[in-house]
């Protein structure tokens, strides 16, 4: 019979092996590590504003948080109107002053992302408390679009393609996160052969967003942000066209997706076509309007 000491030693080695395996997994998968860090840095634990408990912030960002609270009612109304129903639950908005704290909380480990939505929280970069304050309202609305959509969609269901969720958020927020590219510029880029490819490719790496041909960035252009905003705006004008060309179909698609339906069959049921077929129809209308 094994001694108690042997059993304890065995269990100890097993626990160490398990810890080592988890550590190795976190090193090999930085996204998993970032998500674990975010779980430990939930912004819902930040102090709230006395006048609006939906807004959480670091103490140093209080003035910025008050500006967010002022913008929040209009942003919520805009998103509810565009999505066609109220929020499933009151959103939480977190405002940061410290870039490292924001990176730890946003699930990406990246302080350069303007805004992030995660687990019912809309998180805003410290940029909006400083030199990009003029974008605060539009990016707030953009992130609230994600909070609204995924607040209704059951957790654990496959995510719709990012072109749809980002296009929806840009459309619903009147250009949030794509402010430097206009609808007309996005349409012209499509006419010129620089249309985004609306497949299931994740758009987390903006340098990897697929285009039919690489769009010219021009002198002084920041390639990463230019590609992101052009892709987002092109997706947005397509989503807006889908809603405008068939409002009932768009409503059916939204309700199906919010209920947890897979994207491709839900889209076909709503529009009687695939996204690629509808994109072809959409681009034909652009060419006809030259």
Per DSSP E runs of 2 or more residues, the count of β-strands stands at 4
Strand order of the largest sheet: 1-2-4-3
Shape by Cα distribution: globular
Low-confidence stretches: 18-23
Q: How much of the polypeptide forms β-strand, as a percent range?
A: 5-15%
Radius of gyration, taken over Cα atoms and rounded to an integer in Å: 22 Å
User: How far is the first residue's CA from the last residue's CA?
Assistant: 86 Å
Mean pLDDT: 91
**Helix-and-strand structural type:** mainly alpha
Report on the biggest sheet. Answer: 4 strands, mixed
Question: What are the secondary-structure elements, in order, as H or E?
Answer: HHEHEHEEHHHHHHH
Question: Count the helices. How many?
Answer: 11
- The helical percent reads 40-55%
Number of domains as seen in the coordinates: 2
Name the descriptors.
single chain, 290 residues, mainly alpha, Zincin-like, 2 domains, 4-stranded mixed sheet, 11 helices, 4 strands, globular
Walk me through the structure.
- The protein has 290 residues and is mainly α.
- It folds into two domains: 34-152, 2-Layer Sandwich (Zincin-like), CATH 3.30.2010; 155-290, no CATH class.
- Helices cover 55% and strands 5% of the residues.
- It is built from eleven helices and four strands.
- It has helices at 4-28, 30-39, 62-83, 99-105, 136-152, 162-172, 183-191, 223-245, 247-258, 263-271, 275-288; strands at residues 55-57, 92-95, 115-118, 121-124.
- The chain has a four-stranded mixed beta sheet with strand order 1-2-4-3, with helices on one face.
- β3 and β4 (121-124) form a beta hairpin.
- α6 (162-172) crosses α8 (223-245) and α9 (247-258) packs antiparallel against α10 (263-271).
- The longest helix has 25 residues, at 4-28.
